[in-house]
Amino acid sequence: LTFLSVARVTQGLDRTGVAAAAHAMAIQVFQLGGIVLLALSTIAQTVIPNDLVQKYDESKQRYVGGKQTAQNTVNRLMAWGLALGIGLGLIQLLSLPLIRQTTPLQEVRDAATWPSILASFSQVING
What are the phi and psi torsion angles at 33 (to 5°)? Predict the structure, then answer.
């Protein structure tokens, strides 16, 4: 719903359609890595609560899970998120020359460059 609202406002910014086209391109660059990071957050929502529950493991002959196990999982997933955020942000920055290939309009290319760069840097925060 938010993306639709933003797209509607963006389309009304100018009559030429340059802002709307640049916005669409910047969103596509952002989604290049954003979907992977959203998947990681979904995994975390499942794995961490499972690790919080303490269970008896027959093969190890001891209890596993609990707060410390969940904390270790959180730390590991945060490190993965940071690494993936940096890596995907770099991939997005490296893919910026592809913007030149996607449209013949120089105005759209110019308008999409800086939002795409900002979207690339925001992947580190998303991670």
Answer: -110, -25
Pairing outcome for strands 62-64 and 55-57: antiparallel
DSSP 74: H
How many CB atoms neighbour CB 15 within 10 A?
7
What is the value of pTM for the model shown? 0.72
Cα–Cα–Cα angle for 60, 43, 53, nearest 5°? 40
For residue 43, which phi and psi values (nearest 5 degrees)? -60, -45
Mean pLDDT of 89-116: 82
First to last CA, the chain: 22
- Provide the pLDDT for residue 75: 94
User: pLDDT tens digits for 24-47?
Assistant: 777 777 777 778 888 888 888 899
The answer for residues whose C-beta is within 8 angstroms of residue 57's C-beta and 6 or more apart is 63, 64
Q: What angle in degrees, to the nearest 10, is found between the helix axes of 18-52 and 2-11?
A: 170
